[in-house]
Amino acid sequence: MRIQYKKLKSVQGSVLCVTLLSAAVLAILLGSYLSMVQTHTLSVERSQSWNTALVVSEGGVEEAMAHLNSGVTTNNLETNSWVSLGNGNYVKTNSVGNSYSVVTIEIAPAVTNANPVIVSTAYVPGPITTPALSRTVRVETKMRINPALKGAMVVTSTLDWSGQGCTSDSFDSSNTNYSTGGTYDPAKARDHGDISTLSSADRAINIGNGQVKGMVHTGPGGVQDVTATIGSGGSVGDSDWASNKKTGWEDGHFADDETRRLDDVKLPDVSWTGPLKGNYNVPGLGKFQYKLNDSSPWLITDLNGSIYVGSKDVVLYVSGSFSIPSGGKIYIAPGASLTVYVGAATADIGGLGIVNSTGIAGNFNFNGLPANTYINFGANAAFVGNIYAPEAYFALGGGGSTTYDFIGRSVTQSVKMNGHYNFHYDEALPLAPTFDGYAAIAWNEL
After folding, report:
1. Contacts of 80 (CB under 8 A, 6+ apart)
2. Residue 13 in 3-state DSSP?
3. How is 231-282 classified by DSSP, letter by letter?
4. CA distance 386 to 361
5. CB neighbours (10 Å) of residue 250?
6. What is the pLDDT of residues 314-351, one digit of tens each?
7. For the chain, does the N or the C end have fewer beta carbons within 10 angstroms?
8. Ranges of the chain whose pLDDT falls below 70
9. Strand 167-171 vs strand 434-445: parallel, antiparallel, or unpaired?
């Protein structure tokens, strides 16, 4: 019997070919899949690195903005590890892990008040073995200006004219057309006796039955008759409106445009001297606990008596307690001036209060430090001066049935008026516009 093997060998060869072909196809598919996975991984990692580069670059911009707004002068930014490149350019390298940014601040040296330009280039490791990635951001800046502050009374929160017969108008001690010898003259009065609040809350201003010869300003979003209200006998308008005894709001005399920030008072960095306490007699004026001149900046820890100020540019710091008792006063002689810094929590101004014989509001300046949170004005006399105490609650209760003048300006956290006062704002006292740092106005990726 004969056995045939030829057909079996043919079948086996076919199976081997199919197997090899299948293996090749699987290898190609697996290789393609692995290549696709690798490409996807590289793409994801590159995307992450790309996004990280932007974060690092923007971090460099923030570093530069913080430097510009730290109080340094743009005439020389070479501090806090910033290095001058000359011609108004400064550079700093910031490391963030394995990444870093090279940041430059560019200021045109020949241009007055030139606005800085920030260029930040970030370098981050590329995915796996690929080269490092970089992204560059260019930011243009502009100076922020804190606008001038004007008005008879300015508060950060509430103003309440509960007293009867309260009024406000204005004059200008620097202009002979609107003052006499620099003092208030009713015949030359103006209608810029504005009152303002930085708030836009309901009833932030209550004028009651008072009369404002000027504007009423509130924070953005304030609403007439909601944020600022007046009683049935109240009036807000110009001089003609007031002269014609009109009540209510004159058109165009309300605005929600008060955007100024009130800065804290800072104590001067000087050497303070304690004045000699005594019993000083001044002919025609009586006795005083202290007589101050301009020979030194003075420090009184606890004030509870009278002060005579006999020189120009006298500076006083009251650190502990501040009280002018019954019969007491701070007397500012003709030709003299006083700036007082008050660190006492409460300033109690009674007696005859501040007797500013010069008649010029700018010759008495009351500066309330952040610790000064309450000013109680109950003096039985007129006030001529300038009060700036942005953290203080200001209560005016003097006068009884008598109407007193308040000549100058007050800037406080709030006002509660129970007395009868005529406010005469001195327009020569506005807080001038101030530099308030830089803000970014344009952002571009290069």
Report:
1. 67, 70, 72, 92
2. helix
3. -TT-EEE-HHHHHTT--EEPTT-EE----PPPPPP-------BPPPP--EEE
4. 6
5. 16
6. 999 999 999 999 889 999 999 999 999 999 999 999 99
7. N
8. 1-13, 33-45, 110, 112, 128-129, 398-402, 430-433
9. unpaired
